[in-house]
UniProtKB/TrEMBL annotation:
Protein name stated in the entry: Tektin
A GO biological process held by the record: cilium assembly
Coiled coil: 364-405
GO cellular component terms, semicolon-separated: axoneme; microtubule cytoskeleton; nucleus; outer acrosomal membrane; sperm flagellum
Pfam families: Tektin (PF03148)
Subunit structure of this chain's protein: Microtubule inner protein component of sperm flagellar doublet microtubules. Interacts with TEKT1, TEKT2, TEKT4 and TEKT5. Interacts with CCDC38.
Gene name in the database record: Tekt3
Keywords: Cell projection, Cilium, Coiled coil, Cytoplasm, Cytoplasmic vesicle, Cytoskeleton, Flagellum, Membrane, Ubl conjugation
PANTHER family: TEKTIN (PTHR19960), TEKTIN-3 (PTHR19960:SF24)
Amino acid sequence: MELYSYPLKAKFNQPRPPPPKVLPATSTTTASYKNRIPCHPESFSMPWMPNSYYKAAALNPTLSPLTECFPGLPPTKIIPFISERPNGVFTRHTLDDWHRSNLTNYKESETTRHNAERLRADLTRTIKDVYQQAKRTQGESTKNLGERVNDIEYWKSELCIELDAMIRETNSLMDMQKRLERALADTEGPFQVAHKCLLNREKRMGIDLVNDDVEKQLVTEIKIIRSCRERLQQCLDTVNAQLMCNKEARQELEKDLADKQMGHHIDSKCYQLKNTSRGIHFFKGVERIDATVSVPETWARFTDNNIFRSQSARAASAKLRASTESLLMGTADEMWRQFSKVNDAFTSRITEIANAKSKIQTHLAKTRQEIFQLETKIQVIQKTIKDKETQLKVAQTRLDERTRRPNVELCRDAAQLRLVQEVNEINETLRNLYQCLRASEDMLQMLVRSKGVLEHDLVVKNNSLFIDQERCMGMRKSYPSTVQILGYV
């Protein structure tokens, strides 16, 4: 991987220039080395560039006279050339010149050695100081890195503790959320039961269609259930909002912890690096790059703020869980008490209807018995009337026959008087019998009407008893228990 802002490595896409056929002169080579810069350690980090190495070789080599190679020597010191004559030789130096040259070389050698020894001592002291300073600087950096690693470990442990507490609190609040949802769903059943009870009781007939205590308690139960549902829904919305706050705080903690783990890994790696470690390289100019975004104070304050935010969210969540638990207990107790009141009202009403039904059945039985007896008496009266009419026929026939007696035989004798009296008595008896028959028939109609009223009232009572006892109480037996209302199951 290549770093940005660094030159790319050279690629040998162009052929190397051919070397010169003639070697450069000594003076030219020496002059080329005078302008060269000494090698520095940082030069090793520079990429390999071909033009840096072929710069000297690219010069056109030329031959220069021998005098130009030693510009500092006087003309008398120039070495003469050997004569072209085979037998002739030029004189070069004298013996004094030779001794002076040796002495001069000795002094120059001593001076050079003395300067070299002093330079070596200075270099030894400088190298020792450089090593001590580098060791001290590297030790301080290593110490600072170690302290930094310890600080990161401390905040990591604090974040882990707070993150675990937040996860436990969030799980508890999620359980409470599920209980609220179940409790809210469980209130739908009692609400529908109460509503259906009211609808079923609308099917009562006649006089039983009254606004009794059962109906009042059912209306109250519907109001209480509706109020409990609204409070539970509001609490559920609050719990959902608190879960979002807990989730945000948890995400901040997890993000901060992930950054701390990455920073701890990097700083631990830097803390363990040594001069003999592998993977160390030159990165020229990296010290001039400042990519920091915080200082130790803001760095610690950032994590402390995240922990404080999480602690505040946890405290609010715990308080909300306590209030939710109290709300669940309160609503369950309130709904259960009203449920018991409605059941008691139903029981009382069913008892009243059952007693009324029993009394109606008793009166109906007596009425039927009386109707039967009255019908029997009517039949007896009708038979008596029939018998009296026959007797009247006999008496009237006798009188009619006696009217045919001739002359003086038409005597008002005792027989005649008795027959007339008998006819009058029978007529009076018949009038009384017919009056009794009419009275009996009227009474029979009244009894039949009373029987019809009692039978209709019995049907009404049976219908009301069936509605209250079978339909309403049958549904209310399936009402969820307090444990289900509280959401524990």
